[in-house]
Write a structure and sequence with these properties.
Blueprint (H helix, E strand, L loop, with lengths): L2 H17 L3 H17 L1 H5 L2 E3 L11 H9 L3 E7 L5 E6 L6 E2 L5 E2 L6 E2 L6 E4 L3 E2 L5 E2 L5 H6 L7 E5 L20 E4 L2 E4 L4
Parallel strand pairs: 1-2, 1-7, 7-10, 10-11
Antiparallel strand pairs: 2-3, 3-6, 4-5, 8-9, 11-12
Length: about 190
């Protein structure tokens, strides 16, 4: 099986598995994963965090967004741009987010833009992750391009359900490895970073 086909097969499998998680199990998993992330020293030291608003069947991040604001951190959320990149916008009021054409909650275009080089911690969505820090996203490369702009000291962490940690994720040269993965079961440090 070629690389593209392997990625497509794993994407379909993970989307289907996430869709099977009940609302109660989803809420419990999101609460457990949030506690893992919030206990990390990298979180406690981070002044500027780039999170994302979960959508559809992604492990929920809404409580993390509220927690970041409640702790007085500078919260940045991505906004997709027509050129295939993400701009990072400072958010101080979650009720001001608007739905993108995909249904993802994003900052308004007028929200202040901050460069990726200022971010101390990036929370990164994905469909699958492995212990080498590889991540399988949705296929558009938004986060791979974004993470190439991160400062060397930024902590990059994947976020997902336990079953999204896969033995091996198919990788291409442009795919950016992560420092760790957070799941409801705990922290999965990676070996490649």
């Amino acid at each position: 099986m070629d690389l593209r086909a392997a990625k497509a097969q794993l994407r379909a499998e993970m989307k289907a598995r996430r869709a099977e998680v009940s609302a109660d199990a989803h809420a419990q998993a999101a609460a457990q994963a949030a506690q893992v992330l919030l206990s990390l020293p990298q979180w406690r030291c981070a002044r500027i965090v780039c999170l994302y608003a979960s959508f559809k069947h992604e492990l929920g991040t809404h409580n993390l967004l509220q927690q970041a604001l409640g702790e007085g951190r500078v919260l940045l959320l991505p906004r997709s741009r027509p050129d295939g990149t993400l701009s990072l916008h400072e958010v101080s009021d979650l009720s001001a987010l608007t739905a993108s054409h995909l249904g993802i909650l994003e900052p308004t275009p007028g929200a202040p833009i901050r460069p990726a080089t200022e971010v101390d911690l990036f929370l990164v969505p994905g469909l699958a992750f492995d212990a080498a820090g590889h991540r399988l996203g949705y296929g558009a490369g938004f986060y791979d391009r974004l993470l190439t702009q991160a400062k060397a000291t930024a902590f990059t962490v994947g976020y997902g359900f336990d079953f999204q940690v896969h033995p091996e994720v198919p990788v291409e040269a442009h795919d950016q490895a992560l420092h760790a993965i957070v799941t409801p079961a705990g922290l999965v440090p990676t070996v490649s970073r």
